[in-house]
Amino acid sequence: MKDKMTPLERAKAIAKGERADRLPCNPNVANGVARIYGCKISEFNSSARTIAAAQIASYRRFGYDGVRIFTDLFAWAEAMGAKVYFPEDNTADLAAPALDDIAKSDSLVPADPYKDGRLSVHIEAMKYLVDELGTEVPCAGGMVGPFTNAFFLLGIKKMSKLFFTNPEVVHRACQVSLETCLRYAQAIIDAGLTPTISEPMSSCTVVGPKHFREFAEPYLKKLVQYITAQGKPVTMHICGKTEKIWEDIVAMGVAGFSVDNVVDLQKCKEQIGDRVKILGHVDPSAVMYAGSPADVREAVFKCVQQAWDAPKGYVIMSGCSLPVETPLGNIEAMMEAAREIGYPIDPEKLNKMLSSC
């Protein structure tokens, strides 16, 4: 099956309540785009053209509804002094936090997105991306939120202890991270793209709602408000369990909320779907990576059945970034399932499709 509309045409039609060819669908291929383009992931670290070209190649292959420049969680902390490990052909990982001594927290300064670390490479890649695809598909610049970045400045294990022993240092790290995030968000906007936020360490699987509200929410809210004040809608992803902070997320003013596959999608729709667009949440590991195309098809049908009628809209999406080696046939199966369902949704047709799986 082939799409009859571009992603931007589709989004505009659905927003107006008009007929479209299908629901928006975004498998979140992430660094798996290297497999499609035929390069090594390590090439992303120094070549803006390669990052953009890989994203463009993947979009052309599958036709999904959003492209994003984002390589790993650590580029912002690295630009502020953290050490990052770069495998030759896999996603980067944190090697050491920016601070080896908490007493040096006053030495933390915001990063300059045009000069520090790999941030300038990403910004240059955004310009190539929007020049090529900006008239047909939403283009985004991804970034981590200030709370998550603070973990990589102070150290993941150490920061959790500092909640109790030295909260002032945690606030200091979050504040300087926020300043970096604000600068980077502005650079994304200036490049003609829309910022998206990943905040994995805000998950209730990692920290309780009390500490989220004390240390994460104030800074994350300022970032969201800054972006929306520039006329850009914010989509946010938080991994793991998030039910206990759904109302907090909505109150920040995000336009879209991407949920992990461990979340009850229907409950999410029922509780907050009248105030925020819901994105999710096909299992990226058990289904997209380890499952068959038939498994993917069934999972897409189930997600759509649970959330298609969310008042603020619904986007078919994987629950998180796909593993690098996700079979390309499974990505295609997700897109084909979305095309098969069509739009507007016919609940009776959808039920028959699901029962046939």
Automatic annotation (TrEMBL):
<feature type="domain" description="Uroporphyrinogen decarboxylase (URO-D)">
    <location>
        <begin position="7"/>
        <end position="340"/>
    </location>
</feature>
<protein>
    <submittedName>
        <fullName>Uroporphyrinogen-III decarboxylase</fullName>
    </submittedName>
</protein>
<dbReference type="InterPro" id="IPR000257">
    <property type="entry name" value="Uroporphyrinogen_deCOase"/>
</dbReference>
<dbReference type="Pfam" id="PF01208">
    <property type="entry name" value="URO-D"/>
</dbReference>
<dbReference type="InterPro" id="IPR052024">
    <property type="entry name" value="Methanogen_methyltrans"/>
</dbReference>
<dbReference type="InterPro" id="IPR038071">
    <property type="entry name" value="UROD/MetE-like_sf"/>
</dbReference>
<dbReference type="GO" id="GO:0006779">
    <property type="term" value="P:porphyrin-containing compound biosynthetic process"/>
</dbReference>
<dbReference type="GO" id="GO:0004853">
    <property type="term" value="F:uroporphyrinogen decarboxylase activity"/>
</dbReference>
